[in-house]
Amino acid sequence: MTDRPSTRALATRPRHLAIVPAYNESGAIADVVRDLRTHAPDFDVLVIDDGSTDRTSDAAQLAGALVIRHPFNLGIGGAMQCGYAFAAENGYELAVQVDGDGQHDARHVHELVAYLRAHPGLDMVTGSRFLATAGDGYRSSASRRVGIRIFARVISAITGSPVTDPTSGFRMTTRRGIELFARDYPHDYPEVEAILMMHAHRLASAEVPVTMRSRTSGVSSINPTRSIYYMIKVLLAIFIGLFRARPNVERGYPAPVAAQHTL
Fold it and tell me: Considering just the CA atoms, what is the radius of gyration of the chain in Å?
């Protein structure tokens, strides 16, 4: 069973949710939660402990987050779908993904909110490190930047809209995006495919400039020796995803939290 917070405690809480997927991030997760509670106090913070073997859950709870614990590791896609399902079930109107390794700066959260409010036709806004002033913030390794540029060109060509940072996990969705991702979310390397999902369902998305930081703990699953494998795998996933059937999303769909994972 997946442990999750009681919905009764959420009845009078804000309708904005920060979803923080985390796997063995005990060294960073408390600072991530505190950063969100300081700079985005009108957001509930939900940490999805995706089968960690360290004290990630305990550190997150002590810092003031709601926590859902998975009994085993589902991967970033399964963790995020769980978070979106929780947001859908509990009536949240906005959900922002913030990584549990400390790379995302919570001071940008309300810039994403402001952009969505200023552009009511959008359903998702992504923080792009490549729209920021040259030299600002962390931009990953050279090999990964090459892959990101290739993904950006492919996604831009498919969607007809400029995309500069398709692998960014720092993104905010409206209620329509929450309901879409609660029902159907890519599970392997989901950031790139999620943009295509938005496009396939005729939901609009855009980017805003942000600065990012180096991770404060843990190790990335994508090291230099795996970059080529990662790039090929994601490109294949993009083209396969263009042809796969997708469920229709009806507004108001209450997605159950524990029933949305697909291995």
Answer: 17
- pLDDT at position 214: 77
The H or E element spanning position 126 is strand 122-128
Beta strand 122-128 with 94-97 is: unpaired
List beta partners, residue 209. Answer: 128
Q: How many CB atoms lie within 10 A of CB 188?
A: 13
Surface-to-core class of residue 85, CB atoms within 10 Å of its CB (0-12 exposed, 13-18 middle, 19+ buried): buried
Token pair, residue 101, equals 């390794």
Give the residue extent of every domain in the chain: 9-241
Asked if residues 198 and 240 have their Cβ atoms less than 8 Å apart, the reply is no
- Can you give the length of the chain in residues? 263
Q: Residue 162 CB: number of other CB atoms within 10 A?
A: 12
The string of DSSP codes covering 57-100 is: HHHHHHTT-EEEEESS---HHHHHHHHHHHHHHTT-SEEEE--T
**Whether CATH 3.90.550.10 fits 9-241:** yes
Q: Is 252 helix (H, G, I), strand (E, B) or coil?
A: coil
Task: Compute the distance between CA of residue 223 and CA of residue 199 in angstroms, rounded to an integer.
Answer: 29
Order of strands, edge to edge, in the sheet holding 66-70? 66-70, 44-50, 16-22, 94-97, 171-173, 122-128, 204-209
Give per-residue pLDDT as tens, 194-234. Answer: 998 899 899 999 999 999 987 555 555 554 566 677 677 77
Pairing of strands 204-209, 171-173: unpaired
Residues forming a β-bridge with 159: none
pLDDT for 153-165, tens place per residue? 999 999 999 999 9
